[in-house]
Design brief:
2 strands; about 70 residues
């Protein structure tokens, strides 16, 4: 019985490793390019905000005095 359990575990392990390798190999060039050069596009920074809470309701308050439109987090 222990031999059967060991064989099933080994089979599952081989399938898991093969799945990971099969997922990474097609995208190998892109992964290496992203690791070397960074992201392909720039990410616009969000304006700084402070979170305030009154009566259990969390609100966003701009960190600077200038009025800036806040983008909703998706």
């Amino acid at each position: 019985m222990a031999l059967l359990v060991s064989a099933l575990f080994a089979f599952g392990f081989v399938v898991a490793v093969a799945t990971i390798v099969a997922t990474i190999l097609p995208a190998q060039d892109r992964i290496l390019r992203l690791l070397r050069r960074g992201p392909e596009w720039t990410i616009d920074p969000l304006p700084p905000v402070h979170l305030t809470s009154r009566r259990g309701v969390i609100r966003q308050r701009a960190a600077t005095a200038a009025a800036q439109p806040l983008r909703a987090a998706a």
